Amino acid sequence: MFEFALLGLLHEAPMHGYELRKRLHDLLGAFRAFSYGSLYPTLRRLQRAGLIVEEGPEESALSWGRRARKVYKLTPEGKERFADLLANAGPQTWDDDSFGVHLAFFSRTPAEIRMRILEGRRRCVEERREGLRERLTRTGEQIDRYTRELHRQGLESTEREVRWLNELIAHEKSEQDE
Amino acid sequence: MFEFALLGLLHEAPMHGYELRKRLHDLLGAFRAFSYGSLYPTLRRLQRAGLIVEEGPEESALSWGRRARKVYKLTPEGKERFADLLANAGPQTWDDDSFGVHLAFFSRTPAEIRMRILEGRRRCVEERREGLRERLTRTGEQIDRYTRELHRQGLESTEREVRWLNELIAHEKSEQDE
DNA sequence: GATCGATGTATCGCAGCGATATAATCACCT
DNA sequence: AGGTGATTATATCGCTGCGATACATCGATC
């Protein structure tokens, strides 16, 4: 997840940790935290795996006075890895957290994979919707007033998301046969 | 979180792990996973902390043939701890994950604390809403079509949740001065 | 009598968060 | 000139919690 996001961002341009975090926060801050406690360990993991490399810090001699910062850039393996993650978009791709991140990189994602992710997400939300419906209409066992409210709100919210996804999918389709 | 949920459930009756998980899944499955990988370690943590104790397995001699199961029940300290968690309902209480869990135990929660949680949650969602609004109306830097869609959907969704919370709060108020 | 799904307990490795430490620079005020 | 606070920047620690997996027993169905 974090890995996917970092690779996606570095696809645009080499960056250092702080900037990566700022971009992520700006891009998806409303949906996910992206804390430093994950950022730096993940960067080192990617580095060890050879997916990113530290650019020589020398060429920043221009604007000196700055604090030491490590600029990372994608290796060819890193680019490959990102493409793989996209191509293998599977079940774990469509859960709440993951989906938002993928959507943020959609303009960089092949149309056919976009479609797969949108439809996977729709199915996932539909399943949750059915679960909520079933729970609400279930007779027998009385259900707590507050829990019922929670489920009602959840149901409405998933219904809206399905409608929204349908619009996105329709738009994709209409673009496909331009 | 998990701790809170387990203590809350055991408040009703002594239970063993599998049943706790089933109840949680039934109660909040649409919102959270509550996997075994957390359940058993948490139970042991609670046990070590003296908040729950294992009931002697002897008295299940009645329905024998069942597999060995460990039934846990709350200690007085456990009940105290649950009350503390409620009384100290703070900032981390109103984030997405936590709020649903708390709501599920609302009928067991004092009215004044219910109010604090609902209002805290509302403020939290309002803040997210403002962040999304600001992001969407910000001029300058062009924003990706898909990311914009995500934010639009997020904004609508938070607006709805605020309205929903307002209704819950109004209902609480009307009940307060019965 | 075989297989399948539910019941049941448990562990392992991993992802990711929140808090915190450290430190340099910058903008601003006095 | 000096102080103060926000911003830039990297990094670690402990903890929560998930997914996968393993193992074992039981009841039902075929």
From TrEMBL, chains A, B:
Keyword Coiled coil in annotation? yes
Pfam families xrefs: PadR
Recorded source organism is Lentzea indica
Protein's UniProt keywords contain Disulfide bond: no
**Taxonomic lineage:** Bacteria, Bacillati, Actinomycetota, Actinomycetes, Pseudonocardiales
Q: Which residues form a coiled coil?
A: 115-175
The name on file for this protein is: PadR family transcriptional regulator
Q: Which InterPro entries did the record assign?
A: Metal_resp_DNA-bind_regulator, Tscrpt_reg_PadR_N, WH-like_DNA-bd_sf, WH_DNA-bd_sf
Show where the Transcription regulator PadR N-terminal domain sits.
Answer: 6-83
Provide the alphabetized UniProt keywords. Coiled coil
